[in-house]
Amino acid sequence: MPRFTVNTTRFDPYLGFKFKIKVDGLYVAGLSKCSALKRTTEVTPWYEGGDASGPHQIPGKTKYDPITLEAGVTHDQTFEAWANKVNNFEGDAATSLAGFRKDISIEVFNQQGVKVLAYNVFRCWVSEYQALPQLDAAGNAVMISTVKLENEGWQRDASVTEPKET
Questions:
Q1: 19-156 carries CATH number 2.70.98.10
Q2: Segments of the chain scoring below 70 in pLDDT
Q3: Residue 92 DSSP SS3
Q4: Distance (Å, rounded) from C-alpha 23 to C-alpha 69?
Q5: Which candidate in 43, 130, 132, 149 could, as Cys together with 124 as Cys, close a disulfide (CB 3.0–4.6 Å)?
Q6: Cα 106 from chain centroid?
Q7: Sign of the torsion formed by the C-alpha atoms of 82, 40, 34 and 153
Q8: The pLDDT of residue 95
Q9: Is the pTM of this model over 0.85?
């Protein structure tokens, strides 16, 4: 079977540097990194009486790893506003858990800028937020803010199909 169904002569996989993240239907500005989508299913040994051949291996609980997003510091307040829904600096009275979970979309683009893959990530919430990196008067690095998103699973968006490349 070919690696690509539409572009059967293509051999190289997609590159991982063209991507966008949508939160509340809008793209996050200045995004520079997105950690891997990873899930792990526990292995549960099961022993059957009278069967000395050893344990059977059956699937147990599935865990979805957190997703870390990094973005250059701009005036976009998407991460900060979302993080404040979980823990507001003004105290418990200002904190509202209404709407603190959001579905996001991770979209991957080919070199021509055409969307080739998308994953929908469900019920995300901010468990860690870094507004600013360490500041260094002698440095010249781009300032990066970071969020760590807990999630309850993800699924490939089947409506995004392989485009015909020219």
A1: no
A2: 1-2, 4-11, 14, 88-97, 166
A3: helix
A4: 12
A5: 149
A6: 6
A7: negative
A8: 59
A9: no
DSSP-derived 3-state class of residue 158: coil
* Calpha distance 138→90 (Å, rounded): 34
Give the closest residue to 41 by CA, choosing from 54, 24, 58.
Answer: 58
Neighbouring C-beta atoms of residue 96, cutoff 10 Å: 11
Q: How far apart are CA 28 and CA 20, in angstroms?
A: 7
pLDDT of residue 115: 94
What residue segments make up the domains of the chain, in order of their start? 19-156
CB atoms within 10 A of CB 67: 22
Among 34, 10, 7, 14, which Cα is nearest to 109's? 14
Nearest to 166 by CA among 33, 26, 7: 7
Residue 80 DSSP symbol? H
Distance in angstroms between the alpha carbons of the first and the last residue of the chain: 21
SS3 at position 161: coil
Instruction: DSSP letter for 113, please.
Output: S
Query: How many Å apart are CA 43 and CA 95, to the nearest integer?
Result: 38
The whole-number pLDDT of residue 62 equals: 96
Residue 134 corresponds to which tokens in the numbers above?
A: 């360490």
